Amino acid sequence: MSQQPKPLIRRSEDVEYEAVGAADGMRKGVLIDESRGAPNFAIRRFELDPGAEVPEHTNEVEHEQYVLSGEYTVGIGDEEHTVSEGDSLLIPAGVVHWYRNEGDEPGAFICAVPNGDDEIELVE
């Protein structure tokens, strides 16, 4: 029998951000995940600097995203979409996607994923 998760409040100043390897000008902060007691999902916050580019890649798990600020371009499959504050996205598992911030303002979004392994594969 699994233990009941404990409620958690995590303050913004406690979240550490790190550069995302293959992505130029993108940072990731893990807000809540398994290591903080969340049984099913992880939520992360990403920041995209002006001029940032994230190459085409796939993930093994679905992504649900919510744009917090800025305006940037997202490629999903064969289509490009300009997204901005308040927009929501579903990127199904295995679908090629990428990001580009051509604006002068940074962009930021929340991304929710199922807990567990997520293999990221760059598309050549």
TrEMBL record:
SUPFAM superfamilies per UniProt: RmlC-like cupins (SSF51182)
Protein name, per record: Cupin domain-containing protein
Domain Cupin type-2 as annotated: residue spans: 45-112
Pfam families named among the record's database cross-references: Cupin_2
Entries under PANTHER family matching the protein: PUTATIVE (AFU_ORTHOLOGUE AFUA_8G07350)-RELATED
CDD domains (alphabetical): cupin_TM1459-like (cd02222)
Top-level lineage group: Archaea
Organism from which the protein derives: Halorussus aquaticus
